[in-house]
């Protein structure tokens, strides 16, 4: 049996969270087209007869830390490189190599762990910068061209990781697929819908907290899971935009979150959602990572 940790690193929006979900086979990390979606180290666990891989998703690195939260994201990405067994560097060949890429490459080069370059988004026809990333091959022990979206070459990536892991006992029970506590995972799904529904900078000033979860029964009807949650924002103007005219926007966010939660959890959901202003939520929530 082999067992160990494989960290997914790369700049923002290269598809690390989409890749994590595809590797695990279920939704573990939230995704959106916007950077700074991932804020914590998220573990996605793959267990098979060969052993267990704990894939670690990380935030992208930002060239400049504009606030405490962004600084924490950079620190989280850096700390994830220590104490792991394999590094998977995820690259996006639709974007040219930039400053954030060079920062990450320097961080990765300083480590001694086996390194795999996973060139993602190969489902895109003729990615314009793929040759730039292929030229980085001498910095890595292996290059694998994958598509997280189409689940292309993911078995090859898993096999390559197993080949590089040490022998050892599993870190998690066989049935477990994530390290996320249930409340935190619920808040992440709702936050994803805020990112999807809202544009510009609003998502970056928001967080979601779960206040209550309760199973409710009504006569012979199937039980309903009641979830009470609050969207926190630092700006009163953003609160009004999140609610929308006639509460239209918050209804759209709530509907999208409820439909996805019902599909994943296979149960009826009643989502009680509101928006509050909390100018210090970044100080409160940009603290310890979920266990």
Task: Note down, in words, how this protein is organized.
The structure is a single chain. Strands 2-3-1-4-5-6 form a six-stranded mixed beta sheet. With 291 residues, the protein is an alpha/beta fold. It is 33% helix and 23% strand. Residues 62-66 and 287-291 have low confidence and may be disordered. The two termini are 25 Å apart. Strand 4 (86-91), helix 3 and strand 5 (115-119) form a beta-alpha-beta unit. It folds into two domains: 2-164, 3-Layer(aba) Sandwich (Rossmann fold); 182-285, GMP Synthetase, Chain A, domain 3, CATH 3.30.300. The radius of gyration is 20 Å and the shape is globular.
Short key terms for the protein model shown above:
about 290 residues, GMP Synthetase, Chain A, domain 3, 2 domains, 3-stranded mixed beta sheet, 9 helices, globular
């Amino acid at each position: 049996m082999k067992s160990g940790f494989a960290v997914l690193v790369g700049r923002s929006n290269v598809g690390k969270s989409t890749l994590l979900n595809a590797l695990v086979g279920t939704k573990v990390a939230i995704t959106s087209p916007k950077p700074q979606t991932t804020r914590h180290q998220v573990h996605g666990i793959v267990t098979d007869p060969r052993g267990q891989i704990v894939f670690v998703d990380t935030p992208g690195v930002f060239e400049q830390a504009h606030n405490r939260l962004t600084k924490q994201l950079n620190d989280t990405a850096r700390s994830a490189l220590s104490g792991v067994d394999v590094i998977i560097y995820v690259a996006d060949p639709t974007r040219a190599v930039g400053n954030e890429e060079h920062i990450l490459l320097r961080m990765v080069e300083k480590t001694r762990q086996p390194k795999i370059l996973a060139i993602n988004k190969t489902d895109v026809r003729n990615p314009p910068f793929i040759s730039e990333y292929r030229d980085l091959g001498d910095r890595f022990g292996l290059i694998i061209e994958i598509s997280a979206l189409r689940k292309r070459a993911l078995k090859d990536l898993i096999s390559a990781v197993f080949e590089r892991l040490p022998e050892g006992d599993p870190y998690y029970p066989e049935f477990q697929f994530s390290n996320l506590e249930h409340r935190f995972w619920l808040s992440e799904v709702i936050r994803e819908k805020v990112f999807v529904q809202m544009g510009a900078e609003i998502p970056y000033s928001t967080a979601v907290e779960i206040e209550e979860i309760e199973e409710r029964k009504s006569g012979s009807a199937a039980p309903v899971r009641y979830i009470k949650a609050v969207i926190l924002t630092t700006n009163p103007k953003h609160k009004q935009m999140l609610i929308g005219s006639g509460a239209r926007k918050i209804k759209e966010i709530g509907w999208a979150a409820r439909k996805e939660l019902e599909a994943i959890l296979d149960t009826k959901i009643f989502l009680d959602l509101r928006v509050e202003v909390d100018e210090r939520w970044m100080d409160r929530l940009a603290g310890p990572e979920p266990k």
